[in-house]
Write a structure and sequence with these properties.
Length: 238
């Protein structure tokens, strides 16, 4: 803030930064505790839908936290891209980088860890069009929208407010949100899933910064990537 003479009041600026740091730390602590507790509860009821239920409820929690901070989803990247035609370039680039990171991480992790068996969740999709369409819809709502809004839009933004400004802070924020993204998928994929999805989260987080905190390229790439995965399961391509 400035005093009547137009000079910046450093004490006020420091106080403002401390308040922003505390707010970010509290918000992240609430978010992580909520996600862990809800996931534990829902896993006792349904493993198949534990992730989607946790993600959708977390989006609702974030909406409450944003309202308390006087923020909107638009502030996190849910806004129209400045140039819509760039999406035709950005989305394929993100999708290719995502698949490359996932394949590389899976190949590396596969040398030391067993690949998780997801047949219990998706084994009935082969040749089953209604079930496949159902999961594609979930993939867009939860994977495309909810996960990007949670991990890139909210978590990464809160980490940027919590960590020192500059390149080092941004890199650390990307890595930490990637770790949380991977951990969120470890309940049914183990350490293998944590590493692979963590690599994917790092790629998506990096592009979020590159695209100046706009979520739309990531949402579209995430939704398309998940859709391709379910189409492969439907066609039973091995």
């Amino acid at each position: 803030m400035m005093n009547p003479n137009g000079v910046v009041n450093r004490a006020d600026a420091t106080t403002g930064e401390a308040h922003a740091w505390r707010a970010a730390a509290v918000d992240l602590a609430i978010l992580i505790a909520f996600m862990v507790a809800l996931n534990v509860i829902t896993l006792r009821i349904t493993e198949r839908y534990a992730g989607p239920i946790t993600a959708s409820c977390t989006v609702a929690l974030i909406a409450v936290l944003l309202r308390q901070r006087g923020m909107r989803w638009r502030d996190l990247g849910m806004r129209r891209p400045s140039r819509l035609r760039w999406l035709f370039v950005q989305v394929p680039v993100v999708l290719i980088a995502w698949r490359a990171a996932a394949a590389g991480a899976a190949a590396l992790a596969g040398q030391y860890l067993p690949s998780p068996d997801t047949s219990a969740r998706f084994g009935d999709l082969a040749g089953n069009l209604p079930a496949t369409l159902w999961w594609i819809a979930i993939a867009w709502l939860i994977g495309g929208f909810a996960e990007e809004m949670i991990f890139r839009g909210y978590v990464l933004n809160r980490l940027e407010a919590l960590l020192p400004r500059g390149a080092r802070g941004s890199v650390l924020a990307v890595l930490l949100q990637a770790l949380l993204f991977g951990a969120a998928h470890a309940y049914n994929r183990g350490l293998f899933g944590l590493l692979v999805l963590g690599a994917v989260g790092a790629v998506l987080g990096t592009f979020y910064l590159v695209f100046r905190h706009n979520l739309w390229p990531l949402i579209l790439a995430h939704g398309l990537g998940n859709t391709l995965g379910f189409v492969v399961r439907y066609l039973d391509i091995r």
